[in-house]
Design a protein that fits this description.
By secondary structure, the chain is an alpha/beta fold. The chain folds into two domains: 2-95 and 224-237, Rossmann fold (3-Layer(aba) Sandwich), CATH 3.40.50; 99-221, NAD(P)-binding Rossmann-like Domain (Rossmann fold, 3-Layer(aba) Sandwich). Helix content is 28%, strand content 22%. The chain contains seven helices and twelve strands. The protein has helices at residues 16-27, 73-78, 97-104, 122-133, 157-162, 206-213, 222-237; strands spanning 2-8, 31-37, 53-56, 70-71, 83-87, 90-94, 114-118, 137-142, 150-151, 165-168, 194-197, 217-219. Helix 4 links the parallel strand 7 and strand 8. The longest helix has 16 residues, at 222-237.
C-alpha cells in the first residue's frame, strides 16, 4: 500500500483525506491518505520514509522550501510549495495550487483587470502569480503595515469600487470560524465584481455570501481543491 499525507496546522477544516479516500475507493487504488497536523514543518521528516508524497497547507507552504532537495521552476517563481514528492534523491517541491487557481478563474477576464488579493501567505503568492500571468494588475493586502501594497484600513469604498476581482487568500471564514469574513466595505461591491475564495470549507463562505448579496459573481474554493489534488496525484504517480 502506498501512503500519502497532508501536513499543516490546524487541519480540522481539510477535505483532502475525504477526497483521496473516495478517489482510491472508486479507482481501486491500494493507497492511504492521512492528515498529519504539525506546528513545526521539520516534524514531517521522520514520516518521509513511509510516504510517496504529501500535500502542504497553512502555515508551511513557504517554510517547507528549505527542506527540499529540488523545487520546480514554477514553485520557485511563486515562492510557495503545496505538493511534495518523496524521491531517492530527497524531497521535490511543486505548486499545484496555481493549477487549481487557473481552473477556478476560467471564464473570468483577467487581461487589464484590477485585482485585490487578501493575504500574503502561500495561497496568496500562487493567486498573485496566476492573476499576473493572465494580465491582471494585482495589489496584495496585509494586516501589517509595509508587508503588502495595502492594509485593510486602506481598502475604502472608492478602492473597492474601482477594482474588478477580489480574492480571499486568507483562512478567514474557514471552518469552524464560519461567521468571520475579511473586513471590507461590502457596500461598494457590485455586479461588476468577481469574488473568489480559496477557502472551500464551507463552500459558501461569509465573504462570498456578502458579495453575492451585492450582486457580485462568486467562485468558491472547491474547484481549486479538486484541480490541485489531481495535479498532485499526477506528480506523485510519475516515475522518478
Amino acid at each position: 500500500m502506498k501512503h500519502f499525507a497532508l501536513i499543516g496546522y490546524p487541519l480540522e477544516h481539510s477535505l483532502s483525506a475525504k477526497y483521496f479516500a473516495e478517489k482510491f475507493l472508486t479507482e481501486g487504488i491500494d493507497a492511504e491518505y492521512s492528515l498529519l497536523p504539525m506546528e513545526r514543518v521539520e516534524d514531517i521528516l521522520p514520516h518521509c520514509a513511509n510516504l510517496v508524497g504529501f500535500n502542504v497547507t497553512i502555515p508551511h507552504k513557504q517554510t517547507i522550501i528549505p527542506l527540499l532537495a529540488n523545487i520546480s521552476e514554477e514553485a520557485r517563481a511563486i515562492g510557495a510549495v503545496n505538493c511534495v514528492k518523496v524521491t531517492p534523491n530527497g524531497l521535490e517541491g511543486y505548486n499545484t495550487d496555481v493549477v487549481g487557481i487557473r481552473k477556478s478563474l476560467e471564464g473570468v477576464e483577467l487581461k487589464g483587470a484590477k485585482a485585490i488579493v487578501l493575504g500574503t501567505g502561500g495561497a496568496s503568492k500562487a493567486v498573485q502569480y496566476a492573476l499576473r500571468e493572465g494580465g491582471a494588475e494585482v495589489a496584495a493586502v496585509s494586516r501589517t503595515q509595509g508587508a503588502a501594497d495595502f492594509t485593510y484600513e486602506d481598502l475604502n469604498e472608492e478602492r473597492i469600487a474601482e477594482c474588478d476581482i477580489i480574492v480571499n487568500a486568507t483562512p478567514l471564514g474557514m471552518f469552524p470560524n464560519v461567521d468571520s469574513a475579511p473586513a471590507l466595505p461590502y457596500s461598494a461591491i457590485s455586479s461588476k465584481h468577481t469574488l473568489f475564495d480559496c477557502v472551500y470549507n464551507p463552500r459558501q463562505t461569509k465573504f462570498l455570501q456578502l458579495g453575492a448579496e451585492q450582486g457580485a459573481r462568486t467562485i468558491d474554493g472547491l474547484t481549486m481543491l479538486y484541480a490541485q489534488a489531481e495535479k498532485a496525484w499526477e506528480i506523485w504517480e510519475t516515475e522518478n
